Amino acid sequence: MIFKWESEEDRLIRFMKIPPTKKLEWLLQMNEFVYKFSSKRQKKIRRKLRAV
After folding, report:
1. 23 partner at 20 to 30 Å CA-CA among 4, 12, 14, 29?
2. Mean pLDDT value across residues 23-28
């Protein structure tokens, strides 16, 4: 949803109310999605960076 009428502070407060576990679940899902649809070259670079 787009909340153009709310201030930046209100927006931050709204996001802070989301539980940390839910945020981590979303982050994990985003990472899995990006990895799933990455090219072989991107996956190779990501593995190399993770090894460092």
Report:
1. 4
2. 96
